[in-house]
Amino acid sequence: MSEQIPHWLDKQAELNPDRLAVETYMGEQISFRDLRKRSRGMARALIDEGVKPGDHVAFLSDNTPYFPIFIHAISYIGAVAVLLNTRLTAPEIAFQLKDAHISHFYIGKGYEGIADKSAVGLEMKVKAIEELPILNELDYPLRRELPFEEVYTMMYTSGTTGHPKAVMHTYGNHWYSAIASALNLGINSNDKWLICLPLFHVGGFSVLMKNVIYGMSTHLLEKFDAPLVHDAIIAKGVTHVSVVTVMLQRLLRLLDGETYPKGFRCMLLGGGPVPERLLQETSKRNIPVFQTYGMTETSSQIATLGPDYAFSKIGSAGKALSLAELRIDSHKRGEVGEILVRGPMVSKGYFNRKEEDGIYLRTGDLGYEDEDGFLYVVDRVKDIIISGGENVYPAEVESVLSEMPGVRETGIAGRHDEVWGEVPVAFLVTEAGVTVEDVRTFCNKRLAKFKNPAEIHFVDALPRNASNKLLRRKLFHLLDGETSE
Question: Where is the AMP-binding enzyme C-terminal domain (predicted)?
């Protein structure tokens, strides 16, 4: 029999009924007692709509208070929440609705048009989440326990090649991910985690799970907005924020030489290696940066590097969290190979796809461990550029270029070359005055010749996904009308 726990929102409403569960930048505040009441009321409305245990229910919404209400409502029924990326086109959404076997489709305000186009020809109703009544009747069979082995959410991978796949997360996956993070970062009664990553993404969603498992307050933003994040840390008691490098760079510009309040405990930084120059700046201002590695399949972070090792292990993502295991598919320590992971936070697989054989999950990422067992993520397997028989890792070149004064953002992608097979191409967002010659001089001093960009393009912005991670496959779409050599 599967391990079960009392429903986590019931438990928080019992233990911390008046504690703030969710607040928004607009000033709305929801306690754990009220979150439970509204979630159970929505669950009753969903049941009246025909949602049953085991149904796959799609949700397309921005970051609003309806998001946590909805996902807890789904858990009270025992259905599965399929969380859709708000940046997708109608054909992309239509594929996921079919692929995930969706029975019901709920949307947030502003998505009526694209949702109707996506659902054409499918036997499902599209309904606005704001139109669902919050019912008060008590004679509904709502769940009291949560089975760890049961699938709770599905989120699609980004689909860099071929069609995306729906990652199945169980209640246990989310539980153990939150517990592993707590064992690493600790928990204080005054913790408040700011959410600016999209909630349909595992980085944002994982904070909602920490919220209900820890009884921790959250500060919810619709999206990343540097001034709003800055204000929340300075004036609204935020103690934790999850960001990627480009977000942190924008926040530092707003600090203007100052630092954050002493109560600020964690800047959880994902999305790849961090420039040393950025680490030096955060250290100078006493900002606790925790560099981390994770993915949708691991329910968020699975390895983390604390501030104490920021300079002795520059470029490292740290070591596997206490409940996780990690190894490199290579012949010896220090050699680059595919990163393999396992643990109770690792997804049970992909919906409607053949199960992978083996104990470990093959991440598709390349990395190595140093002599002390610290992980260094080199790149995605599919992003490697093979130039003249030599492997060029875009993340390594990006890391070097990000150290150059005047360079704000960097992206490296490979293009076909008749002589070398492939060559690296650089796309840079820079301050005024940076020239192609400056970049070439900088690279020549720090990179082997085969790693030097064959072309350098200056662009206004780099393509990023909803969580601000770089989309290297879209870099060449930027070439029209840009300054380059």
Answer: 396-469
